[in-house]
Each structure stands twice: as C-alpha cells, then as structure tokens.
C-alpha cells in the first residue's frame, strides 16, 4: 500500500521531516504501507534523506519503507489516485480534491500559521467523520489507530444550490 | 451669485446627496421577474489560488445557456486564473473541439478587451484589472496601487458601460465575489453606479469553504455592502445571523 504526503505550495518542513521519521515509518509499516511519496514543496532544511545536494527527486529505503521525495509536479491528481492514504497540510483545496476522490485523509494543520482557520476547517471536518485531523507528535498514534472504513463519505458537489441562489436573486424563481 | 441663491442651491445639492446616500442604505428592490429563456449577464472575480478554485466551482455549476455573456475578472499577472477560466469555458463548450479556432478567437478578445465583441464571439471574456496591493509590496506603496486599481474598476464598471450603450446595461447584471482584496474595489465601483442611479450589478458574496468559525477580512468588509452574503458552515451562520447558509456550495 502507498501513502502520499503533500504540503501543496506551502512550506511545512516539520511535516515533511516527520513523515520520513522512524516513528511514523514504523506506524505506516505496521499498517501495511510499503511505499511513501513525499511532495515537500518549498522544503528548506538540509537533510540527507530528503533531496540531497539540490536533487529534485530522491529514492531510498528507510525502516522497510520505500521513500520517494520531490518538490512539485504540475498536477497531483495521479499521486492522489495511486495512494491509499493521503497525509496533507490543511489547505482547503487539497482537502476538497482528496475527499471528493473518496480517499482516506489525515490532515495536519500548520501550527505556525497565524490566525489558524485551517485548524478550524480540519477539526470541523474531523468532527463530521470525513477525515482525521492530527498534530505532528500525534501522527504515529493516529496512523496506528485509524480505521479508514469508518470515514464518512464526503458528498459530491451539489451545483444546484448555488444555481438556485442565483436564479432566485435574478428573478427566475 | 447672490447669497440667498447660493444658499438655496447648496441646500438643494446637499439634500440630493443625502437622499442618494440614504437610498444606498435601503434594501435593493427585487430583480424583475424573468422568463426561463431570458439570458442574464454574469461576472465573477477570480482572486487567485483557492479563491479562484472555489469561484470556478460555483461558476461550473451554472446553466451557461442562461448566464451569458460571462466576464471573468482577474488581477494583472494572474495567468493561472486566466488559464483555469479558459479551461472551464472550453470544457463546457463545443468550441473545445476546435482548439485552433478557439485560441485565435480568444487571443483577439483578450487583446481588445471589448466585452460586447466577446459576447458576440464566444459569450465570455477575460477582464484584467491592476492589483489593489501586490504581495510583498511596501505599505507606503499600497494607497497609490489601491487607487489605481479602484480607478480601473470604476472605468470598467461605471464608465465603459455608460460610453457603450448610453445607460442601459451594466458590466454584468450580477457579480460574484469571494475575496480577496480587489473584490472590495469592484464593490466600491458598483456603489458609485448605485449612487448615481446607474444600472449596477447585483452583488453576491460567497465566503470560502475554509471559513468555519470566523469571516475572512473580505467577508467582514463586504457583508454590509452586498445583496446576498452566503457562508458554507452552520457555525459561521450562528456567528453572523445576516448570512445565508445553504450547505456546502463548492
């Protein structure tokens, strides 16, 4: 099974670093994940494991998990499709994309963002059972205890709602 | 001019201004009833990034045979939003089968920027306006940039429609806004139309799906100004009773 970690266009080095740390790789391995793909975006800190000496992609094996790391791709659609589990920053665009594909999702709001409304979104969706919200220290525990089968399917886009507002406002209804 | 005449004149002008200003605070009259076959012109501001994605998700749901011509308003240099708008139009249109024809027609539209021509040719147009504030721009440079942006909005919302048709059609009959910055200047331009009794787009604001417990700055500023204000979370509806909640819209 494959897990995809994404930080979108943001810089969220603690999540990138944590995702290839031993505790998380152990947790993933224990749940049957053998491949991890990490989109690190604007990852800054120098690490031997991720993007050594300016390379754009790196592959390695750590703690029994195949680790692949890279910065950006024009579209993440293919990565979402390949993955069985997605671990993501709490950007609303990523959340909508992943939930609409029916994939299991753990979101980790970036705690360094000021006025963190991303955390509110993550918690509201977690409370409704659509995804898991976690902090970085909690991530191994959430991975070990999660039950993707119990996640509540996210409803498809219902375009008729906005069309109705507009029709109403413009005198059609 | 004699003093009493001057006094009377100033009084008349003041009364007129007060009356017009007061009329801005009244709820707008409802739109006239339309037959289902009657078209309605539509404009949307694409605020880049997540704002653009959400705005286009709302637009994608619309019946394009009813809401046309469509105007996509983008900030200068936001080529990504422009591309996403083109992609949406292409995916909704038969013209997508002839990519070469499409490219040429649209290049023409974008260089001329003429809305009437656009509606005749492809029923949509991209309209570029300067940014109210560039990212990383110093705060001192903000007022001139904001004024320039406002001037451009007034040109497109107020002046151009006047020159084009006398005074019958606004830029669009309805304008969808979902933040950030520049949508406030567009809203101000629409209010200039209202102040002078010119046709103004009806203004609809949709707060981001990402806003659960608090309004965005754009939301806070625009809430008292727009005709419809929608939020996407019941939590936010409780906080802001004037808002409408119709479930998730994107």
UniProtKB/TrEMBL annotation, chain A:
Major localization class: endoplasmic reticulum
Similarity comment: Belongs to the glycosyltransferase 28 family.
Its job: Involved in protein N-glycosylation. Essential for the second step of the dolichol-linked oligosaccharide pathway.
Source organism phylogeny: Eukaryota, Fungi, Dikarya, Basidiomycota, Agaricomycotina
GO molecular function: N-acetylglucosaminyldiphosphodolichol N-acetylglucosaminyltransferase activity
Species of origin: Heliocybe sulcata
Domain of life: Eukaryota
Enzyme nomenclature, EC number: 2.4.1.141
Subunit annotation: Heterodimer with ALG14 to form a functional enzyme.
GO biological process: dolichol-linked oligosaccharide biosynthetic process
PANTHER family: GLYCOSYL TRANSFERASE-RELATED, N-ACETYLGLUCOSAMINYLDIPHOSPHODOLICHOL N-ACETYLGLUCOSAMINYLTRANSFERASE
Keywords: Endoplasmic reticulum, Glycosyltransferase, Transferase
Domain named Glycosyl transferase family 28 C-terminal: residues: 3-155
Annotated GO CC locations: endoplasmic reticulum
Catalytic function, reaction form: an N-acetyl-alpha-D-glucosaminyl-diphospho-di-trans,poly-cis-dolichol + UDP-N-acetyl-alpha-D-glucosamine = an N,N'-diacetylchitobiosyl-diphospho-di-trans,poly-cis-dolichol + UDP + H(+)
Record-linked InterPro entries: Alg13-like (IPR039042), Glyco_trans_28_C (IPR007235)
The protein's name in its UniProt record: UDP-N-acetylglucosamine transferase subunit ALG13
Cell compartment(s), UniProt: Endoplasmic reticulum
TrEMBL record, chain B:
Gene3D superfamilies: Glycogen Phosphorylase B
InterPro entries: Oligosacch_biosynth_Alg14
GO MF entry, a single one: N-acetylglucosaminyldiphosphodolichol N-acetylglucosaminyltransferase activity
Subcellular location: Endoplasmic reticulum membrane; Nucleus membrane
Keywords, sorted A to Z: Endoplasmic reticulum, Membrane, Signal, Transferase, Transmembrane, Transmembrane helix
Biological processes per GO annotation: dolichol-linked oligosaccharide biosynthetic process
Keyword Lipid metabolism: no
GO cellular component: nuclear membrane; UDP-N-acetylglucosamine transferase complex
Function noted in UniProt: Involved in protein N-glycosylation. Essential for the second step of the dolichol-linked oligosaccharide pathway. Anchors the catalytic subunit ALG13 to the ER.
Subunit structure: Heterodimer with ALG13 to form a functional enzyme.
Protein family: Belongs to the ALG14 family.
Record-given protein name: UDP-N-acetylglucosamine transferase subunit ALG14
Native organism: Heliocybe sulcata
Gene of this entry: ALG14
């Amino acid at each position: 099974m494959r897990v995809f970690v994404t930080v979108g266009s943001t810089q969220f080095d603690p999540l990138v670093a944590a995702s290839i740390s031993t505790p998380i790789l152990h947790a993933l391995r224990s749940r049957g994940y053998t491949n991890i793909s990490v989109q690190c975006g604007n990852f800054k800190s120098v690490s031997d494991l991720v993007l050594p000496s300016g390379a754009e992609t790196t592959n390695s094996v750590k703690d029994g998990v195949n680790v692949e790391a890279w910065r950006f791709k024009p579209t993440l659609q293919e990565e979402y499709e390949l993955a069985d589990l997605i671990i993501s920053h709490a950007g609303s665009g990523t959340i909508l994309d992943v939930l609409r594909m029916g994939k299991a999702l753990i979101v980790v709001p970036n705690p360094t963002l000021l006025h963190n409304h991303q955390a509110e979104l993550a918690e509201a969706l977690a409370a409704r059972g659509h995804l898991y919200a976690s902090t970085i220290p909690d991530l191994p525990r959430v991975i070990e205890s999660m039950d993707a089968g119990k996640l509540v399917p996210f409803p498809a886009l219902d375009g008729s709602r906005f069309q109705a507002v507009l029709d109403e406002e413009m005198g059609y209804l | 001019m004699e003093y009493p005449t001057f006094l009377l004149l100033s009084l008349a002008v003041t009364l007129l201004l007060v009356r017009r200003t007061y009329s801005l605070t009244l709820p707008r009259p409802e739109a006239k009833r339309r037959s289902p076959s009657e078209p309605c012109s539509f404009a949307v501001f694409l605020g880049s990034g997540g704002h653009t994605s959400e705005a286009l998700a709302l637009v994608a749901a619309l019946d394009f045979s009813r809401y046309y011509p469509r105007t996509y308003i983008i900030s200068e240099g936001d080529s990504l939003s422009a591309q996403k708008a083109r992609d949406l139009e292409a995916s909704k249109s038969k013209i997508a089968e002839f990519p070469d024809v499409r490219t040429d027609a649209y290049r023409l539209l974008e260089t001329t920027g003429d809305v009437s021509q656009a509606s005749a040719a492809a029923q949509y147009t991209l309209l570029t306006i300067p940014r109210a504030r560039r990212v990383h721009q110093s705060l001192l440079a903000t007022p001139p940039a904001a004024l320039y942006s406002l001037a451009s909005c007034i040109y497109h919302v107020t002046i151009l429609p006047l020159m084009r048709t006398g005074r019958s059609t606004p830029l669009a009959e309805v304008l969808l806004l979902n933040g950030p910055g520049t949508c406030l200047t567009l809203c101000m331009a629409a209010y200039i139309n209202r102040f002078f009794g010119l046709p103004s787009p009806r203004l609809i604001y949709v707060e981001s799906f990402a806003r659960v417990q608090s309004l965005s700055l754009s939301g806070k500023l625009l809430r008292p100004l727009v005709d419809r204000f929608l939020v996407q979370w019941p939590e936010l509806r409780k906080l802001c009773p004037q808002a409408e909640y119709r479930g998730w819209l994107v």
